[in-house]
Amino acid sequence: MAILEVRNLKKSFDSVEVIHDISFSMEEGETLTIIGSSGSGKTTLLRCLNFLESPDSGMIKVKGEELLCNETLSGMSEKILRRKRLHFGLVFQSFNLFPQYTALENIMLAPTLLAKSDSSFDASGIEDNAKQLLDQMGLSDRMDNYPHELSGGQQQRVAIARAMALRPDILCFDEPTSALDPELTGEVLRVIKDLAGKHMTMIIVTHEMAFARDVSDRVIFMDNGIIAEEGSPAEVIDNPQNERTIQFLSNYKKNI
User: What are the Cα distances from residue 138, in Å, to 161, 187, 218?
Assistant: First the structure.
């Protein structure tokens, strides 16, 4: 059974339809990469999946549980929304760490707050789990550092650990290296590749085409809010059939 099913998802801002009838599914342990030009709807799709934007219509199902079916989020309580979001972890472009908290405290914050507001959440081992995640990111020696004391690559690795702290079913990345200097990009991509090797279920929005080809099980190319092409990296990146995919990838040929 698919871990994620998305059917007929639509989203408009005012009169502009940003996502047009998107449907796809993915299996547990799969890495799905979404590529496409800026403005093609990639980030909006991720935000809809994470319930940060309210789709106009469509269905989202995780592990057979229907989280959304042709309804908006406006009538949902914050508690219900929070439960839906727990299925997903989102790593943003620009880290979004809290500057007043250390690396360890940034990772512990969401589980600690959730434990206080939801008695069904297991609060045991929050600190130990945060330390293990920092170790996994290669940052055990930085747990007491504040964000301003960390490099951009280190901050993004803390952000990845933070997104994993609530043990989401699906980890999402929205251009995780776009805010980094080129020399820091590699350390973040290595962490994501390691997670893929451990079969973490992931959706990655990226413009790093060589990385997308190496790390992905499947690739989606979005154009003007639709899925224009979908398949394996060999099919979509190395041998695209859609004219828009060909045009888009021509800008990256020397790098892939």
Answer: 11, 10, 28
Q: Are 200 and 29 within 8 A, CB to CB? A: yes
**Residue 86 predicted with pLDDT over 80:** yes
Closest to 105 in 3D by CA, of 160, 168, 158: 158
Please name the helix (run of DSSP H) or strand (run of DSSP E) that holds residue 66, with its range, or none. strand 65-69
Amino acid identity for residue 113 in this structure = L
Q: What dihedral angle (degrees, nearest 10) is formed by the CA atoms of 124, 129, 131, 135?
A: 160
CA–CA distance, 83 with 54 (Å, rounded to integer): 15
Residue 246: CB atoms within 10 A of its CB come to 13
Q: What is the pTM of this model?
A: 0.93
Phi, psi of 238 (to 5 degrees): -85, -30
153 with 188: CB under 8 angstroms? Answer: yes
Two structure tokens written together for 7: 């059917």
Each residue's pLDDT tens digit, 158-202: 999 999 999 999 999 999 999 898 888 999 999 999 999 999 999
Would strands 31-35 and 218-223 be described as parallel, antiparallel, or unpaired? parallel
**Res 74: pLDDT:** 81
- Alpha-carbon gap, residue 77 to 95, rounded angstroms: 27
